[in-house]
Amino acid sequence: MTVVHVVEGRVVLPDATVVDADLELTDGTITAIAPTGSLSSVCHERIAVDGHLVTPGFVDIQINGGWGHDFTADPTSIAAVAAELPVTGVTSFVPTVVTSPASRRVAAFDAVAALVSAPGSARPLGLHFEGPAISPARKGAHDERFIGMPDPDELDRWTPDHGLTMVTIAPELDGATDLIRLLVERGVVVAIGHTACTAAEFVGARAAGATVVTHLFNAMAPFGHRSPGPIGATLADPDVRAGLICDGIHADPVAIRMAWRSLGAARFVLVTDAMAALGVPGGETQLASLAVTVGPDGVRLADGTLAGSNLRLDQAVRNLVAMTDCAVPEAVRAATTTPADVIGRSDLGRIAEGATADLVVLDPDLHVVHTIIGGVTAWKS
User: Fold this and answer.
1) Is residue 38 part of a domain?
2) What CA dihedral angle connects 95, 355, 339 and 70, to 10 degrees?
3) Are residues 96 and 235 in the same domain?
4) Which terminus of the chain, N or C, has less C-beta within 10 A?
5) Do both 46 and 189 map to the same domain?
6) Looking at 70, 273, 314, 358, which residue is catalytic?
7) pLDDT exceeding 70 applies to what percent of the chain?
8) Is residue 347 part of a domain?
9) Active-site residue 273, yes or no?
10) pLDDT tens across 294-328, in order?
11) Considering the entire predicted model, what is its pTM?
12) CATH number for position 25
């Protein structure tokens, strides 16, 4: 049995309150949250954080790659990216495979099945298939050659047991409602995205079991007061959660504030939609089969279409605070508890007894200074 004490921290609790507390971590699980100085001195390691903010580990449910690696082109690179992510505070993530030939999804399943998580690496939580069942009219940076409903034979493997956690679908496609129901019955999370759907079609997808929206505002029909579409339907829905890319490029800060005030911390999900450009200098790189360029105006195709981002999730937290003037613990919740709730992981994204001991220590400027995964230091500044 290995016992670690994280002491002298300002701890963010699941209700977004902050308390001065010490934490006891036993074999990778949080086993005690105690007033500062009250834990026994018996432990294998003592980590003093000197009054810094201690948050749950960050959870990114939409990330396409990083550090020169693209999950769609090479799903075996998931492990390499997992090793890099702790510097950004990410302790768990859902590797995302964009619209591509069926063979790419097969390769992704095989890669996840063979994956061995290394100590100190972020934890992959199964795959997110963003496509191919999306709207050609709202394809964004997806290769339109491969857009369409998946072959029925392929669907036999689309289960959590085979490593599938989440799928993004456009509700207006023929057969989309049946596909949503099938996946939800199997325990796969269904997101609405890359869509030109009407508000009524959005409601139909929600009734079929879709629970979240992929990168609200981006790659979807615009809002109109007589044609509210997926944006209006999202903001009017009292329960649906929505991912947003808070880099100041994908959505104007005014739009972010609007979504924040409509959704709140329990339904606003910070995602990066990061791709191979994350963690590397600007220049040429790729997203699946498409060439992209990284510059000061983001990651783009040759025609100017946004193609994911090079956003870090810790930067997204800082941006959300700056854009909305929200309380820091609420911004933290949008990067931790809420995304974990989207994928049904009540053991992640929260500091509570019995939860997985994934922690991030932030300095007063909200920069990561220490990342702990499963009770073990994964990165330290």
Assistant:
1) yes
2) -10
3) yes
4) N
5) no
6) 273
7) 100
8) no
9) yes
10) 888 888 888 888 878 999 999 999 999 999 999 99
11) 0.96
12) 2.30.40.10
